[in-house]
Structure formats: structure tokens, C-alpha cells
Design a protein that fits this description.
By secondary structure, this protein is of the alpha+beta class. It is 37% helix and 28% strand. Strands 1-2-3 form a three-stranded antiparallel beta sheet, with helices on one face. The radius of gyration is 18 Å and the shape is elongated.
């Protein structure tokens, strides 16, 4: 590739190909939700790739009481939805 202006997008596409819809131990399944440009200076810039995780609770330590466990999962999903809403 000779056009270095497109290099960040090429790298982002390679990373997305490796991560999107893949299951990672301790994290869960990833789903690409968007990207933003990062401008540090006139010479340095990049991209921030954002992914949502699903089914990541299989690796957590479970509580002794199933009611506490269900409440933890409910609270976690609510926090995740709040973080993702604009």
C-alpha cells in the first residue's frame, strides 16, 4: 500500500476482521458498534474502534444466592445500556 493516508483505515479493517463476531474468553462475543477519529496533532491521528460484548458473564464468579446473581446480571446490563446510550 503506497497511500499512507489510508493506513489507519486498513489497520482498523484488519482488527475488525479479527475481533467482530468473535468470542474471547472472559469478555464474551464482540459486536462492532462504531468508530471515531482521534486527532492528536496535525501529524498524528487514528481511529477508536468500539465493540459491544455479549454473554461475558460465563467467566464471572457466581454468588452463593441465585437471587443476588440475577440482580448482579440485571444491574450490569443496565449499566452497559446506559454507557452505550447517547
Amino acid at each position: 500500500m503506497t497511500d499512507f493516508k489510508l493506513r489507519p483505515y486498513r489497520i482498523a479493517a484488519e482488527l475488525d476482521e479479527m475481533l467482530n463476531k468473535q468470542r474471547l474468553t472472559g469478555i464474551g462475543k464482540l459486536e462492532f458498534i462504531g468508530a471515531n477519529e482521534i486527532l492528536l496533532t496535525d501529524e498524528y491521528a487514528g481511529l477508536c474502534l468500539m465493540y459491544r460484548t455479549y454473554h461475558g458473564e460465563e467467566d464471572k464468579k457466581y454468588f452463593n444466592d441465585p437471587v443476588e446473581d440475577e440482580q448482579f446480571i440485571k444491574d450490569f446490563k443496565e449499566m452497559q445500556n446506559e454507557a452505550m446510550s447517547p
